[in-house]
Amino acid sequence: MTTPPLAQVPVRSTAELTQRWADLLDPPVFAARSLWLSWLYEDGTTLPVVMPVDDVPRVPGLPTLRGLVHLHEAVAEHSSDITHLAMALCRPGHAVVTADDDEWAEGLRTVLDDAIESSWSLHLAAGGRVVPVVEPSAWRPPTG
After folding, report:
1. d(CA 46, CA 85)
2. Which of 28, 77, 133, 143 could disulfide-link 125, Cβ–Cβ 3.0 to 4.6 Å?
3. Can you say how many angstroms the Cα of residue 67 is from the centroid of all Cα atoms in its chain?
4. Cα 9 to Cα 65: distance, rounded to the nearest angstrom
5. Is 61 helix (H, G, I), strand (E, B) or coil?
6. How many Cα atoms occupy the beta-carbon half-sphere of 129 within 13 Å?
7. The dihedral of CA 87, 91, 97, 98: what is its sign?
8. What is the pLDDT of residues 9-32, one digit of tens each?
9. What is the DSSP letter of 46?
10. Is the pLDDT of residue 1 over 60?
11. What b-and-e string marks burial along 76-97, b requiring 16 or more CB atoms within 10 Å of the CB?
């Protein structure tokens, strides 16, 4: 029996998306801050690339946030059927959402909600756990 690559296994729920991040970031323990990006297709499968952005600031500035929008647009331009941008904020410490993490979520809302056509989500990976910070609002995982 062979196991298909993880990118070919559909994510069918928000709980499965959280588990996917736990699988990808195993173990979710980090010494520095980074933001990992993954893109999902309409059928729940993912682009076979997960992109880390290392050394992100504690609180995002507008240039950082705009850079993420441009990166997403560049990827989506080459894969037109992408429907969801999944992100994981990875940092040292416990997997408890802090004020700084909330700043990331709010900053992402500010730039992504109107700038991109696809939905998006944000998870926190820290202290050996992955927890949702912003669950996808418009993305509907496949049901079949």
Report:
1. 10
2. 28
3. 15
4. 29
5. coil
6. 9
7. negative
8. 999 999 999 999 999 999 999 999
9. B
10. no
11. beeeeebbbbbbbbbbeeebeb
